[in-house]
Amino acid sequence: MSRHWADIGESTFVAGIWLLYAVHRLFGRWPFRLLLYPVVLYYWLSNRTARQSSLEYLQQLHASDAVFDSQPGHWQSIRHFICFGETLLDKMLASNGRCPADRLRFSGHEPIVAAIEAGRGGLIVTAHMGCLELLQTAATWRAGFPLTVLVHTAHAERFNRIVRRLNPSTRVRLLQVTAFSPAVAMQLAERVAAGEFVAIAGDRVPVHGDRVVHVPFLGRQAPLPTGPYLLAFLIGCPIYQLACLHEGAGYHAKVAVLAE
Q1: What per-residue confidence (pLDDT) applies to 211?
Q2: How open is the CA angle 252-257-260, to the nearest 5 degrees?
Q3: How many whole angstroms separate alpha carbon 107 and alpha carbon 242?
Q4: For labelling alongside 203, which of 54, 97, 153, 228 has CA 20 to 30 A away?
Q5: Distance (Å, rounded) from C-alpha 135 to C-alpha 94?
Q6: CA dist 244 to 29, 173, 199, 229, 231, Å?
Q7: Which of 20-34, 100-114, 129-143, 219-233 shows the lowest per-residue confidence on average (mean pLDDT)?
Q8: Contact 204, 128 (CB under 8 A)
Q9: What tens digit of pLDDT does each residue of 147-158 get?
Q10: What is d(CA 31, CA 23) in angstroms, rounded to the nearest whole number?
Q11: Average pLDDT over residues 57-68
Q12: Can you tell me the distance from the alpha carbon of 6 to that of 17, in angstroms, rounded to the nearest whole number?
């Protein structure tokens, strides 16, 4: 039986992350990459579970959508890890307000802008793709965009402490949630009724409980949580989908209305 994602320990090396961040601040992206590559290679070699998971995902992705020229192997997996390492830097830059605005492009966001102008809130369902911290940065670009991000930090507390230290005055609020209890639902309903937006990841099964639905994903049946949609139904608010994807030297945030 596969382990629950929340039971997998954190591998964050705080001093190493600060060192890489300082190198980027002083010398730029390429010196950062020169230090990142051996770190990523060591992690790839030493973490068998992460390496096998990467290969399984890439091979399943290729079997479903033929995204590579040939069957992905170790080289594609290493590139997968490098991409993740660079995204960690982008998360820190975004949290510290140092990510240039031209690195983030939005599309389909007009309904959210209209809701903000009308003083209405809503629920934003997203996934662990790209750099979601850029959403927090975008919230600071536009006045009147109150945002609460639901997080489960037990598996990444050290990295989240780094992010909070970079920008302790951020207007974006993080709310620790391990289960959708009636008290949590009432708290979120009050925030949405006050015109706030709540962002929640919709790609991880619950830490507690079994409210999931199995849907086709990359040629297999995958369990996805129903909590965000039940919450939106109970609150009676619009629900939006957000996907933040790598695009060139930056990211493309795609927004879509799932339900009014």
Answers
A1: 80
A2: 160
A3: 10
A4: 97
A5: 9
A6: 21, 20, 13, 20, 22
A7: 129-143
A8: yes
A9: 777 766 555 555
A10: 7
A11: 91
A12: 22
Q: How many CB atoms lie within 10 A of CB 109?
A: 16
Residue 19: both structure tokens together: 């060192």
Task: Provide the Cα torsion 11, 14, 15, 20; round to 10°.
Answer: 90
Residue pair 222/215 in contact by the 8 Å Cβ criterion: yes
Residues 6 or more apart whose CB falls under 8 angstroms from that of 225 comprise 202, 204, 205, 206, 211, 212
Residues 6+ apart with CB under 8 A from 111: 238, 240, 255, 257
Phi–psi pair at 218, nearest 5 degrees: 55, 40
Between 14-27 and 29-46, two packed helices, what is the crossing angle to 10 degrees? 160
* HSE (side-chain half, CA atoms, 13 Å) at 146: 12
